[in-house]
Amino acid sequence: MISVSVNAQKKNKYTIDANEVPEVTHVHLDDFPKGEVLPLIDGWGGMAVDINNAPAGADFSPLLEGLENDKCQVPHWGYVVKGSVRIIYEDDSEEIFAEGEAFFMKPGHTAVVLEDLQLVSFSPEHEMHALADHLNKKVAEMQKQQ
Q1: What is the pLDDT of residues 93-117, one digit of tens each?
Q2: How confident is the model over 13-31, as pLDDT tens digits?
Q3: pTM (predicted TM-score)
Q4: Which of 72, 122, 126, 128 has the most other CB atoms within 10 Å of its CB?
């Protein structure tokens, strides 16, 4: 077993089980589920892979309201396929992830898209499902208000 410890905010430890081989070991960006707020595929050794497509100007903060500190508490490892995004952390520090860059996004963040964005990230599976459930509920609430 490969064990990976992430001490982001010193409260989380994530274990990747390299023996848990997914049925499908590679996917194309076009193969992700369609029509979902957060298209993801899980079963990758305890990790989920997701793809984010968002237009310039998109602010994720309203979708994160109701989570701890109104921020995403899931760590993400990934790659920016196109565009750029500003990441704002709970401590008010900021980073910009741009096209062609690999990244680690620590827990306690929100984001504002600077340029039309496509990114792929890998995150702990259980936490991603909880996040996806929250996002789906928020989007449904917003649609009812329109």
Answers
A1: 999 999 999 999 999 999 999 999 9
A2: 766 666 766 677 777 888 8
A3: 0.84
A4: 72
